Amino acid sequence: MGESPVDDWSAVPQALRTGAALPPCWEPLFGPFREGTIDDLVVVGQVGQSLDGRIATIGGRLEYINGAEGIAHLHRLRAVVDAVVIGIGTAMCDDPQLTVRHVAGPNPARVVIDPRGKLAADARLLADDGARRVVVTTRGAGAALPPGVERVALPDPDGGRLDPAAILAGLAAVGFRRILIEGGADTLSGFLAAGCLDRLHVVIAPIILGSGRPSCTLPAIADAEDALRPRVRTVPLGDEVLFDCDLSAQRRVVGQAKKSR
Ligand SMILES: NC(=O)c1ccc[n+]([C@@H]2O[C@H](COP(=O)([O-])OP(=O)(O)OC[C@H]3O[C@@H](n4cnc5c(N)ncnc54)[C@H](OP(=O)(O)O)[C@@H]3O)[C@@H](O)[C@H]2O)c1
């Protein structure tokens, strides 16, 4: 595909929020964030991985997987969404800030899926910096949250996992429409397997990591012919490559359905 788009970025987050036209070089990549194709939500997953499909070393942190351009892309994704979502595994392993620091743009709300109330009160994503902070939990997990932190409490799925569609519906009910599922593997895989992503951005770094955490853990399929084959655009990001995968064909309706598809 074409060149790596770098110009006029600062206009993009605001243009998406006001419905204004995007600078042309950003339209192919960020135009799909304008509105959902299936319902009124736009849900995008992202993963930064090595050539051998790893998102982290066995015990390590994520920041050495992607280079500067891959990380800038992640921060652009954060800047255009209302909320960025991670699982409690990533919150505990990386203690991320989930702010926009490498590009221009506003900080999104920060959401952690923590069904059993394990999040530490001093986690950096809970910092009171003006962004909304939300913990998705089950009704039974009653750990107190710091002042100002919102709780989206979902019915306890009887020891099973929360349905990603129910998580999205809960987030839509508190006002979020553009949502980034940032990871980790367990969380992202759940949304992918449940048909709850409109798009998946996979940024592949030119490194081979060896043993480490795989980028996805999905149910087995019997035959390669049954593989999901999304429409894909590739965009070079320096020496990394972004695969922008359109998953709208298998996306479940979660929010307000479009009248015609
Ligand atoms: N390279 C990248 O792009 C990237 C991005 C993010 C993270 N990471 C890496 O990913 C690793 C962590 O990933 P991970 O897979 O171990 O953990 P994770 O996905 O961050 O968190 C998984 C946990 O979140 C909760 N959870 C998520 N979805 C749920 C659902 N539908 N229902 C109920 N609970 C749900 C569960 O908590 P309970 O265990 O309490 O049930 C689950 O065990 C770290 O090494 C981090 O560095 C890499």
Automatic annotation (TrEMBL):
Transmembrane segments: none annotated. Residues 44-221 form the Bacterial bifunctional deaminase-reductase C-terminal domain. Pathway: Cofactor biosynthesis; riboflavin biosynthesis. GO terms for molecular function: 5-amino-6-(5-phosphoribosylamino)uracil reductase activity. The keyword Amino-acid biosynthesis does not apply. One of its GO terms (biological process) is riboflavin biosynthetic process. Keywords: NADP, Oxidoreductase. SUPFAM superfamilies: Dihydrofolate reductase-like. InterPro entries: DHFR-like_dom_sf, RibDG_C, Riboflavin_Biosynth_HTPR. PANTHER family: 2,5-DIAMINO-6-RIBOSYLAMINO-4(3H)-PYRIMIDINONE 5'-PHOSPHATE REDUCTASE, DIHYDROFOLATE REDUCTASE FAMILY PROTEIN (AFU_ORTHOLOGUE AFUA_8G06820). This is Riboflavin deaminase. It comes from Rhodoplanes roseus.
